[in-house]
Amino acid sequence: MLTSLLPSTQRALLRRLAVEQSENRVPSLIAGLVRDGETIWVDSRGKVGGRPSSTDTQYRIGSITKTFVAVLVMRLRDEGRLDLADRLDDYLPGTSIGNRSIGSLLSQSSGLTAEPAGQWWERTPGGDAAELLAGIDESALRPTPNHGFHYSNVGFGVLGELVSRLRGAPWHEVMQREILAPLGMKRTTLEPVAPHAEGLAVHPWADVVLSEPAEDAGAMAPAGQLWSTFDDMVTWVRFVGGDTGEVLHPDTVLEMRSPGSVDDGPEWRGGYGLGLQLMRYRGRRLAGHTGSMPGFVANLWSDPDDATGVIYMANTTSGMSGTFSTDLLDLLAQHEPRIPEAWEPSADVDMRLLELTGQWYWGPSPYVLRIRPDGLLDLAPSKGRGRASRFRANSDGTWTGLDGYYSGETLEVGRDAEGTPTHLNLNTFIFTRTPYASEAPVPGGVAGWRHGR
User: Fold this and answer.
1) pLDDT for 129-153, tens place per residue?
2) For residues 289 and 278, what is the distance between their CA atoms, to the nearest angstrom?
3) Among 9, 138, 312, 443, which residue's beta carbon has the most beta carbons within 10 A?
4) CA–CA separation, 233 and 300 (whole Å)
């Protein structure tokens, strides 16, 4: 059931959708927005089989397939079956990238070629895994540094075979068992199941279309073969945002959303985590993936900080504008920004933490420590920019950083004989109640403040 939007908001979104479909001559296009896990708007333009597209109409989702493969790999990692630092040779020996790590394949930083040897793989029947791996010779390596960003479809074909080897079953069967069934994604399939759109190319200079092939890509299928519906993609956009059910721990998905490589330019807007594309846009930190195969284009982006997502699916080979997804997010923010919940005192604050709050100093630099509504501690500069992090409590009385410079680092509270907090030890950095407090264990000692030089 759709959450109600104002008629003016719906009209603005519909107009943007209509302009996209009409001006770019897209045979059919469905798009929608998700907020707080619910579809708040969805609409379509154009037709599939003579009827408007619906939220149950399948489209090919292209490289969004990679996100499913990445989740399968991360499940293996979380089970202890592999480590992201492991070399590919440990599992699939014999390729020219055997010394590259599994993590580098996931983050598109292995230096592996973008496309497999042979014919254009997206429009021809695919070979088996043995053929794919045999084609990864020295010519498949690119001159870019192996730690830099270089998008590789081949890398995800390899990762699909890695999953198959370790699970003892084809990757798509593993996906069905471990992801799709638990999440109730019944309309995400390797081959099209009616109702589905036909892949089309639109002539650049005339209003005519051409049917695109939809071959089985074989060993390259993990790079982009899946078909899905808008309804299933709503489930997946929630998953990327952290609503993972029992499939992955939310902390693992947070790890997947962390930048592993960036598409370096004048300023980076696009990067890659572990199987997820990343985009920075007007203060938003978006994670998801774009997708394209001959005849189809799709986008899925999640903004976990705002619990918002955007999805679109179209049956055209090319021609979509690059700003359609972010334009929809902008329209939502412009017409219906979130109204903050009324503030109320919390009933769950651990009152023992109050003595830790307030002003602390790292050397002469003032910081403030606050208790967040979710029970985490927040340590940040009292003004300006600097090293800010959130901290989660451990059972031994220490705290672990969750983000920023101190992600994964340990915060310990130093106390005097009476138990009063005197300093914070944050991975050897000492924070004191006054600048360079003499009673705190500041390395090098404190001689005291004085006048002049």
Assistant:
1) 999 998 888 888 876 655 688 899 9
2) 8
3) 312
4) 8
